[in-house]
């Protein structure tokens, strides 16, 4: 994985975590809703695991945010 891609994946993961924390959801809650373990979910938020589009859409829906909000870079 090239460095630019890795950094962008980490930024997406950080945005997911920040929205989840803002909404006061636990990792366990979201993990259960998307059908994975809390450990697997934690790896997504840490940027250690690649996130599929399907999972990204599901997480966005559970967090009640537009997927674009999780993908958008503030560096325009």
Break the fold down into its secondary structure elements and pairings:
Elements: H1 3-22, H2 27-34, H3 38-45, H4 53-63, H5 67-71
Helix pairs in contact: 2-3
In short:
By secondary structure, the chain is mainly α. The protein has 5 helices and no strands. The chain is globular and about 30 Å long.
Q: Which CATH-level-2 architecture?
A: Orthogonal Bundle
Main sheet characteristics: none
Whole-angstrom Rg: 12 Å
Average pLDDT number: 92
Structure description:
- By secondary structure, the chain is mainly alpha-helical.
- The chain has a single domain, classed as lambda repressor-like DNA-binding domains (434 Repressor (Amino-terminal Domain), Orthogonal Bundle), CATH 1.10.260.40.
- Helix content is 68%, strand content 0%.
- The chain is built from five helices and no strands.
- α2 packs across α3.
- The chain is globular, with a radius of gyration of 12 Å.
Descriptive tags:
434 Repressor (Amino-terminal Domain); globular; 76 residues; Cro/C1-type_HTH; DNA-binding; 5 helices; Helix-turn-helix; Lambda_DNA-bd_dom_sf; DNA binding; mainly alpha; 68% helix
């Amino acid at each position: 994985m090239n460095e630019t891609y890795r950094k962008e994946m980490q930024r997406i993961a950080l945005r997911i975590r920040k929205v989840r924390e803002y909404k006061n959801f636990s990792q366990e809650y979201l993990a259960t809703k998307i059908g994975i373990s809390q450990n697997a979910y934690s790896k997504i938020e840490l940027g250690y695991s690649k996130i599929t589009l399907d999972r990204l859409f599901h997480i966005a829906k559970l967090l009640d945010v537009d997927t674009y909000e999780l993908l958008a870079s503030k560096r325009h």
